[in-house]
Amino acid sequence: MTKKNFLLADVGNTYTKVEVHYGVEIQQIAFNSFTDDRNFPRDQWQHIIKEYDVQDVFYSSVIPAFHSEIEQLNVSGRIMRVHSELRLPFTIAYCTPFTLGSDRICVVSAAAQRKSSASLIISAGTCITFDVLVGTTYIGGSISPGVKMRAKAMHHFTQALPEVDVFKFNALWKEENPLFVGKTTEECLLAGSVQGAAFEINEYINRLSQMHENLNIYLTGGDAITLEKLIKSDIFARPNMCLEGLNILYKLNA
């Protein structure tokens, strides 16, 4: 039986990360989730599908408006979307499983494969999500604003505070002085946006660790590189955890 070429896609609010499996090769590609005029980048998708002779597409998307666009792509096989009714490597103890984001299902699937007594998956993107897995049961978590959203909100909801580039925090923070104290308004906004998120993460880890011994902690998402150095606990940094979960789910449901 000929092995299918398949494309896994993690469609985020800003970027889309795809992983193409063709033959024995794997190619990872990233591009903007929107065109310059805020439309679906169909040409980009079709170019990749044609170049790698993709038969199946399996995707996670946090942009509901794109679901129909993706499902109309021209492929010779199937197009499948991640949702809570798929065959999963964990059980869901969540009051509204149909509202559970596909990106969260993917990262929890990746953690479930590692079979630990308890896991916390922290996804630092547009929002920061905390997902708790006990054994192979998903029990829920938390959603809060991401570092960029915090910075934008302080600018948007006030008259005088400027919008800051949170990536500037990386150049200001020094390991020998772990508490960054801002000396200008811009620096204070950076401290509040980035350190505030880190304080929240550290306290969530602290409290959950008191409830579950041998807690495995995973950090993923676009802002993981900024936050990783501010987290006090031992963590597994996995920048492509959503794609890992997509691969697991594709093999379970293909």
TrEMBL record:
ATP binds at D10, V11, G12, N13, T14, Y15, T16, K17, T126. The active site is at D103. Keywords: ATP-binding, Coenzyme A biosynthesis, Cytoplasm, Kinase, Nucleotide-binding, Potassium, Transferase. Homodimer. The keyword Cytoplasm applies. Its cofactor is NH4(+); K(+). GO terms for molecular function: ATP binding; pantothenate kinase activity. GO terms for cellular component: cytoplasm. It catalyses: (R)-pantothenate + ATP = (R)-4'-phosphopantothenate + ADP + H(+). This is Type III pantothenate kinase. It is an enzyme of class 2 (transferase). It holds the Pfam family Pan_kinase. Substrate binds at Y94, G101, S102, D103, R104, T185. The keyword Mitochondrion does not apply. It is found in: Cytoplasm. A monovalent cation. Ammonium or potassium. Its EC number is 2.7.1.33. Pathway: Cofactor biosynthesis; coenzyme A biosynthesis; CoA from (R)-pantothenate: step 1/5. The lineage of its organism: Bacteria, Pseudomonadati, Bacteroidota, Flavobacteriia, Flavobacteriales. GO terms for biological process: coenzyme A biosynthetic process. Catalyzes the phosphorylation of pantothenate (Pan), the first step in CoA biosynthesis. Belongs to the type III pantothenate kinase family.
